[in-house]
From TrEMBL:
Gene3D superfamilies: 3.20.20.210. Residues 117-133 form the Uroporphyrinogen decarboxylase (URO-D) domain. SUPFAM superfamilies: UROD/MetE-like. The keyword Protein biosynthesis does not apply. It is found in: Plastid, Chloroplast. GO terms for molecular function: uroporphyrinogen decarboxylase activity. Pfam families: URO-D (PF01208). The lineage of its organism: Eukaryota, Viridiplantae, Streptophyta, Embryophyta, Tracheophyta. Its main location: plastid. Homodimer. This is uroporphyrinogen decarboxylase. It is an enzyme of class 4 (lyase).
Amino acid sequence: MMRQAGRYMAVYKKLAEKYPSFRERSETTDLIVEISLQPWNAFRPDGVIIFSDILTPLPAFGVDFDIEEVRGPVIHSPIRSEEGLKVLHPIDLDRLKFVGDSLKILRQEVGGRAAVLGFVGAPWTIATYIVEGGTTRTYTTIKSMCHTAPHVLRTLLSHLTQAIADYVIFQVESGAHCIQIFDSWGGQLPPEMWERWSKPYIKEIVNLVKKKCPGVPIVLYINGNGGLLERMKDTGVDVIGLDWTVDMADGRRRLGSGIGVQGNVDPAYLFSPLDALTEEIQRVVRCAGPRRHILNLGHGVLVGTPEEAVAHFFEVARSLQFDTLFQNNTAKDPNLVT
């Protein structure tokens, strides 16, 4: 379940009061392991996601950042010129030892009972933070940079591609069974621009990782990806995450049965009556078909989500009778299941 550990859990809030700095919580091995295991101890999901952030590796290749209470991530020296590019250097994985150590411990703690999941940000999404200086609603600076300083942006994206690929391989070699790439802000680009400014760099990461770690499954998620599904398929990833604005049946038709899909229950359903949540989970699973589907939310768990609803989500998933579910479904719509 995306954004599995954290803000909605009482046990996490209590720990956050003791350790108020997000960076301390996400960059200290003991705290990373403890927080990552909180939902595992409570709900026993099929995947344990390392507690981290897509910006965590930035200082390891030359970009410092802070996380402020109200503003969120802040990069005090945005990169918008050739001069700014001079701070970049190859990723120093020794500075990310806490990530590697945490993954190793999580593998030991979970054993063979669940997959340990790592993740990274896609180059375009990481670049938006580095260029804009933090979060933005308009993306005007980086979008205009595509036209006013394309050589600078390409150099930045190429550097990020190599750094992120190295970081993915590091996570896999440290114990991650699977990696999810978040191009969180890729959906802010028109499809033609995503083809030019995001897709080639994701594709290169996938190629580099598959050469070094051929067996590792890679998931790609883009927030607002309804206009990009077919283009996402061409990146070489194994699974495409759907956000909740895409109808699962439509997404499956557009992608075909040869690639995995992940998702895509609307996180707001976890605020609904449990019967409604049950029905929606069943509907999503039926629409996805009997193969290559990872049941998940269509975005992260929302602040304030009732923990009993999260528990119910996993209980319903475990209780599904696939033979019955798809036998009934095929009878109703024989064209739905390939």
